[in-house]
Amino acid sequence: MKNDMERCHVVYDVLKTHIQFGAYRFGDVLPTMENNTENFLVSLDTIRSAYLQLEREGYITLSQNVGSTVIKNYSEQEIEQNVQLFFSLRKSALIDLSRSLRPLFTNAQWIGLKNAPSEIYNNMLELRKDHGLQPFIAFNHMMQAYDSLGNDLLTRLLWQVYMFFEAPYLCVPDNPWCDFAVQEFAPQSLDLCLKQDWDSLQKLICQAQDFLSVSLCRFYKERITLQSQEEIPFTWNSYKKASQICYSLAMDLLIDISLGRYPVDTLLPSLNKLSRERKVSVSTARRTLSLLNGVGAVKSIKRIGTRVLPFHETAGNCDFTNPVVRKRLLDMAQSLQILTLSCKAVSEITISSLDAAGIQAGTEFLTTMETRQMYQLVSYDCLDLLRKFAPYEAIRTIYGELLKQLFWGYGLRSMWKEDDAPTDSYISYYKALLQSLKETDSIRFSRKLEELMVHEFHLTITKLVQLGIVEAEGLLIPDL
Fold first, then answer.
1. pTM, whole model, 2 decimals?
2. Per the domain annotation, does 14 fall within a domain?
């Protein structure tokens, strides 16, 4: 992972929390910077920056001979106050996130472990013999398993979830989840992988996710007594770095174009006007328009402006040789993979959670497709329905960001041949999904949506490879 200030701040916060919770006491020496690059899966520069910030804030001293020594001397009462404050500020977000993990990630974790190279398991066996499976080692084991999916976007998302939730929770003294994760789940999952007992592994993963949520809720009920008026939400934005602002802006403009806020054949605002309206620099606005040109949504003409292209012209104006465009299309494919792996479980809990009013609202939302006559977008509309109606905020947040990524493929739809995607097939899916929704048949709805998503994923990867974006081949196509 690349070094950036956002990631450095997250690492700093986690290490500071470990000190505040008493995981590292006065006089203790933190792990070496080199060891923590492996623990946090970040660069040495990022760890060094976090350690320097801890030193500036008076938490540690840095010495070439001794290392990083904790100089904060919290009393037991202060440690308890730190725990109470931290978790009271995040109560709703953490409980919500704990309930979101199983539908979001269980399938990806299972498929990742099934397809992980054998050397990962051999390395973990050696670590278990030498050191036991400590929390960070167990986390790294899981992250390496996810690597087999070939999805950098998923890795960044999982890292964000872990640092917000599990890393602080694992370092609370006498934490039953930590004992379970380290002493039961990690070694058992490793043994099941070595035996290739995939059915038992799937059950164990589900059991672990459920136990995490149950133990957290019990922790709040039995331990956290402080009430907070304000709470810190879980957030995730795939483009946080300053150098990536143009990507977020381009995505927003693509959505505006898709919704008709900038009609076909009209001109986008000028560079200066766009800069003022969106509160970005002129250079950021220029990079944004360049990216929109590259994905085929617009065409800039000197002394005239930037024209919004009709849909049938988009493919001919895509620049697939542009590295930035290629990377954004890969982002799209990675988002599609995450959605494909999670849509079945997410749709099951979402449809099951809807009352009569929710079913009616969802039905009205889906039936707009009949008016638009764009049945090829049935999968997107169903995913958007999940984004709107999912019972947990974390799912709605993550699905919202993933769905935005799909807009990078704006210019690709006009390239799909009719025989690749017969309209009759999509109409059939639409009718089946709509009927399942009306009948609150979450099982049938989830199966049909997953079936459609697997088809879309196969089609997208095939097309990207044909366009020369061979990196897409590294994405594991789930065998569902």
1. 0.91
2. yes
